[in-house]
């Protein structure tokens, strides 16, 4: 060989020698130094058993458990160990055929391989578990019963708030960023508080290694539990929610479509959030979850849709207090400002008719609020956006008005601690420029002054606005979770921060609050009176349009009512929407009043029991829609299945 090839030969030899030394060193470490892997490698007779942690409990503001844990069993399979079993008998117990049996085995192999456990039949019904438990020796070593904690709901309420848990999907498992700590078969929160606080509630799974005998039966801990890891329970949540108030709200909304949102203005803690129609959350737990979910998903009344945070509505006359605050802050009106209204607003090119003809009903702000005068607030809106100091509506007036609304929490997500919150819509200069190609003025958008037009708000945003009024210009982000047990996170920090709104004067807020108390004392909202408690409120009737056979059609109005009490230092602020039910004072105001009375007095007075009964028994959902709904039968079945021995 040429002398020139000698250095190259030595380099190759050194590389090969280095690789051999590295491999030998690693093998020595694994087999001699590191005892753990050596022992586990020898453990063909060792069973690896996952210990699922107890998921965190959720309590209401009175420390009542509103979400707990029950135990069901999964039947798991290790495909490589399935040998010489009575397949027909197992299929008979599980009520499946042999083709389905083979399909599940193949699925288990694809998901986790032949030598690792996979769920073969999840969350067994009690009667199925009983049969299997008696006969498990016939199906071992390939099959095993593994306990699995599921959620239980003792009050059968707050389904859209609490959310539900389900098995992690294959698509999620591929997302190693967000779901790196999960394995196939794990359960996690999919909606509601279960999803938002998943990292708090989930806990940490444990592993137990057991010795098996020659018949693959567990005989005890392997190496005295040296390699076991204990499961760590999830942490508990303490809510601001009052479960008794929530249950009352769901009863009041039975047979109705709409929502109730009640907030403590002093903390931002949500006291109740009802989306009607609601459903029993026990439907989405246990062996019937998948079937029930499919029925709820296709139900014509949309019980899975959380109207309190996802639906948007024109607020109607409930928006007038906010119009008044802007006018007062900009200085275009004073509390004594009056407007002559004879049954229509004539400030634009066409008369805009309203309900009031009596003289003097809009002689000042308080009277205009208590009588809910459309002409008055249409005019105040135009004065605000056309103000010369902002250069008129197209220069800065419209945008300034939109900024006020954004500060009030409209047109964007507020940040509530459950997912899927809607934004609503506050039209601004950019919106109107795009829609009308620059050809628009304050008469184009005049209906904003009475909470109509393009304006859309969520019930949560309306309730939060009442917190701002009641607090005279401040609020906390609405939230459910008041505290977390043994909390070492900063998840709740943002809910403790007080937010100031637009620095509107206390005098302006006082004028509006006086007008809103007049609404309940002597105006359109008298039905909302509570004996011994001053209430500030505002009725609203939101016009409702829909597309029928391709044509925009006027439908029955939505009833709206917003309020807070006691008016001098509010402990509860509330917004109620009852869809397609007419005037706000007819159903929305009584519901709000009964909810406030229950919270503030802990009971409903005897003389108001007939009103309570009437509201509970009233059905406002279209009968044709109810006829196609699965909801009532589903809830009845839930009770039967929950109580089944």
Automatic annotation (TrEMBL):
Q: Is Cell inner membrane set as a keyword in this record?
A: yes
Q: Is the Cell wall biogenesis/degradation keyword given for this protein? A: yes
Q: Which domain of life is it from?
A: Bacteria
Q: Where in the cell is it found?
A: Cell membrane; Membrane
In the bilayer, the protein is annotated as:
Single-pass membrane protein
Q: List each copy of the Penicillin-binding protein dimerisation domain by range.
A: 51-218
An example Gene Ontology cellular component term from the record? Answer: plasma membrane
Query: Which residues are in the Penicillin-binding protein transpeptidase domain?
Result: 258-596
Q: Which residues cross the membrane?
A: 12-30
Q: Which NCBIfam families match?
A: pbp2_mrdA
Q: Which PANTHER family match?
A: PEPTIDOGLYCAN D,D-TRANSPEPTIDASE, PEPTIDOGLYCAN D,D-TRANSPEPTIDASE MRDA
Q: What is the recorded name of this protein?
A: Penicillin-binding protein 2
